[in-house]
Target: Metalloregulator ArsR/SmtB family transcription factor
Amino acid sequence: MADTAGVKRTGRRLEHPQAGEIRVDAVLHALADPIRLRIVRELSDGHDDMACIAFALPVSKSTSTHHFRVLREAGIIRQYYEGTSRMSRLRTEDLEVRMPGLLGAVLNAARIAEGDDTAAGTEPVPAVGGR
Amino acid sequence: MADTAGVKRTGRRLEHPQAGEIRVDAVLHALADPIRLRIVRELSDGHDDMACIAFALPVSKSTSTHHFRVLREAGIIRQYYEGTSRMSRLRTEDLEVRMPGLLGAVLNAARIAEGDDTAAGTEPVPAVGGR
DNA sequence: ATCGTATTACGATGATTGTCAAACTACGAT
DNA sequence: ATCGTAGTTTGACAATCATCGTAATACGAT
Model:
């Protein structure tokens, strides 16, 4: 199982927790960091597969690697190599099984909080992403 | 504002963020700790107002105080004094406005993960707390 | 083989965090 | 006024964490 068939194997190995091993604590901890939350937001923002470098994060390369690893080990993203680039993708489905609605709620909350900067919570919140 | 009318005033003051000031990062960070998550789960588990001591946490008094403060300063719980006891209550509505569905998703995920201990993720998850 | 690009690995460092014990404060009851 | 209960504050400690720079690795192109 999980033969990684079709994926261009490049020799490097990346450890991922299985869907059933994803821990709530780890996920919350991973999402609690502004930079990591930003990465997740960008990943969910249309571009599903992105190389690390494409994020233009305000940190050094090694710090960037660190954050991606935390996300991967928490089970939030799946990574694979493509040439020298490492692509990242949200594990949306696995997360939905283990913690239904959580990722969506976090992303939605981040979007709501973003609106704060301009229109500081005077209005009762426009209820983004309503059902 | 916030006259705390009707509440037995006891001289001590507790700082709470306003609903509009609740930060996603702080909430996620607060919930990422097992002990704090346990507190939140117990609070949501029927008993809405509980004295700190009623939780029987596996930590010292000072550590307990610390965790309750983190939860309070993140905006997750509201606390008030009643005699020598300090009561805690989930700020469910404030949280719902700022991050709709988040608290519920976290609690639900924790419940799902709990079932792991016995029935380790072989089944496709019984979808706890359905709509 | 060599070079450039993308990323990792290896310390190192300063900040935060979870934990505790001991001393202290606030309140209710005696 | 005294005592017990409930919680706070302070200071300390070890562990974790985010951050960096530098050296090393893997891969594609030349």
